[in-house]
Amino acid sequence: MDVLLSIKPKYASSIYRKEKHFEFRRSIFDTTRINRVYIYTTSPEMRVTGTFTIKKVYEDAPTKLWERFYEYSGIEEDEFFKYFEGCEKGFAIEIDNVEEFEKPIDPKEKIPKFVAPQSFLYVKTGIFHKRKSLSEYDQS
After folding, report:
1. 50: nearest Cα among 14, 93, 89, 26
2. What pTM, to 2 d.p., does this model score?
């Protein structure tokens, strides 16, 4: 199984430029079942623009995550703490094997009735690497 993450355009660009080595989340999907993470770049692009694999996931208090990973966070400190406001714990997904697609993919071509996820969406393995349309997915 793979997962589709909604990521703002400026952070997706930072991932592709290899400036952002960690994706931060307030909640996490089942990482033990995931082969690959697809990047759904949010508005105005609204396309699947690439993929990465997960090297490791760290769980800790936001202050500890910032202390450990701020150099490669790809995010400003005030934005980081605003995102984690009210959270006792957070997650840092270490990004590996980044691939930016030459041609971004409209997810509606692969997933009928696609609705952009607030956080993540489980999708069938390789769905955005295949030519034919697949409809198996589980919105979260």
Report:
1. 14
2. 0.89
